[in-house]
Amino acid sequence: MHIHLYVPVLFSLVLGQCSLFTCQLYEYHFINQNKTWDEAQKYCREKYTDLASVYEETDINRLQTASKQDKEAWIGLYSESVTNTTEWEWHWSQAREKYTENQTNWEDGEPDNAAGSEYCVIMKASANKWWDTSCTPTRPFICYNGKNIFEKQKNWLQARRYCRDKHTDLVSGKTQLEDQQLTSKLQEGPDYWIGLFRVTWRWSDGRSSFFRPWNLIFSDSQPDNKTLILINENKTWEEAINHCRENYKDLISITDAEQQRWVQERAKDASSSHIWLALRFTCILEAWFWVTDERVDYKNWASQVKTDDCNMSGAMETGGEHKWYKEDDMMKFNFFCSKF
């Protein structure tokens, strides 16, 4: 069963209904014909590329411009109804933490999606076990910033936004959750939100995007997309990272293929051959690392990187295959700053 996201402007869920729709071929094309979502997808794939994908909030404005009228239209976002819990895609809020089945602490029988919309996870204080549950109730939560920080009640999305703004993120990963200080305090407290959630949304073209209709899932008024700001100024790596930290949060890091694809889409608007990444080489360890503290598990180097010079940082080409290159820190490129 597919649940299709209806209209680019007003998010509504509609099944089995004919509607207008919007195709994409490097630009949006409004099709003034009424079709079901499946018919619209087939039409776009035959005539263009696919149903429209949305990668950032400004794309919503582009969709409105393409439609040239105040009408609702299909886009390529849909949610698969998965009954087999082993097929769920669980993610930690901290991108550097990777969810694996052998690093879990679920209560027996969990996750079970008993209510049909249990996308978030709490830690049961009485047993230090995990339970999947609806994301909308307000609960206490645990932020992490090198140590565990207990906070008062918010829903899951509000809790994550608060932790990212005030600290680092919601507590994530089995290692952080098994910290002795945390487990001893949990015995005395209620059930807490932790940074584990599942993703069901997909784009028709097979790609993923950080821009998803979280308000439909979490009943929160703002979508939780990892917003990037393109700085169309050429700066050295140090100037770039200082600019981001003074005005936003940090230089961008890319920790998986999904983030890579999303940054590629945005990089087409850059005015330089490359954009700086928060990727730095350390001569002491003879290794690359993200200055934003994520692990370097995902790599997209153009070739085998051999680095003898300590003053080197990572940059992604804005065209071609969007590979990563080692560049001298004094080179000047555009760059992305992350807001969250």
UniProtKB/TrEMBL annotation:
Residue ranges occupied by any C-type lectin domain in the UniProt entry: 28-144, 143-226, 223-338
Signal sequence annotation: 1-16
Keywords carried by this UniProt record: Disulfide bond, Signal
Gene3D superfamilies (UniProt xref): Mannose-Binding Protein A, subunit A
Keyword Cytoplasm among UniProt keywords: no
One Pfam family hit: Lectin_C
InterPro entries xrefs: C-type_lectin-like, C-type_lectin-like/link_sf, C-type_lectin_CS, CTDL_fold
Name of the protein described by the UniProt record: C-type lectin domain-containing protein
Classification lineage: Eukaryota, Metazoa, Chordata, Craniata, Vertebrata
